[in-house]
Amino acid sequence: MSGIGTLYGIGVGPGDPELITVKAFRLLQQAPVVAYPKKRMGSKSYAHQIAELYVKPSDGKEMLGLVFPMTKDKDVLEREWANTVKIVWERLRQGKDVAFVTEGDPLFYSTFIHMMRVMQAAHPEVRIVSVPGVSSFLGAASRLGLPLADGDEQIGIIPATDDREAMRQALLSHDCVVFLKVAKVLPMIIELLRELDLVDKAAVATKVTSAEEMVWTDVRELERAELGYLTLMVVKRT
Fold first, then answer.
1. Phi and psi, residue 216, nearest 5°
2. Which residue range or ranges hold the Tetrapyrrole methylase domain (predicted)?
3. Local confidence pLDDT in tens for the 238 residues of the chain
4. In what order do the strands lie in the sheet with 7-11?
């Protein structure tokens, strides 16, 4: 089948709109459809806030908001993802390129990964291109002025979970650890830092590089804090 549009996964960076790449900017300008994660209550997603500085409906583009299911129910997930891919496919089959924007990088803990897999399974004829973006942990390193790894040092990028022993081993086996989405288990992680005498080696950032950025270099202040979803912690042992 000829004339099918290309699906682009566009990384728009960690928050600062100036941290998108030249290639991302060009493709956002060229694509007739810009897709973005849409919240059910109508508020703008993080990626949408970044991208809207570069593209608007008034530019003649279709701004395609897509709602992604926040559930672990397999049946619901399969049904909702199939519907989302169907919506995107309708544009692609008309020969329209679709630029799907995501914060950070599209192939690093991103919604686009699942979009890509489901689209490939349903429509293997679709060309899919990923455009790298600046990830939040790189934005945090810049903001903190902290080299994450040098020479033979080892770094772990770890999704924070309530598996205490796994989090402990991550800290013990790396020179630097970045805990992603750490807010939900922050008290436990701080407790581990105390045990391992690393509490002074940690820093926390929320929505790093954005206008809503908040940074804490003393994590003791956060033992009872309720932070947002896009919060990470950097622990550098040396």
1. -125, 125
2. 6-222
3. 469 999 999 999 999 999 999 999 999 999 999 999 886 655 567 788 888 888 877 778 899 999 887 777 888 888 888 999 999 999 999 999 999 999 999 999 999 999 999 999 999 999 999 999 999 999 999 999 999 999 999 999 999 999 999 999 999 999 999 999 999 999 999 999 999 999 999 999 999 999 999 999 999 999 888 999 999 999 999 8
4. 62-66, 33-37, 98-102, 7-11, 128-131
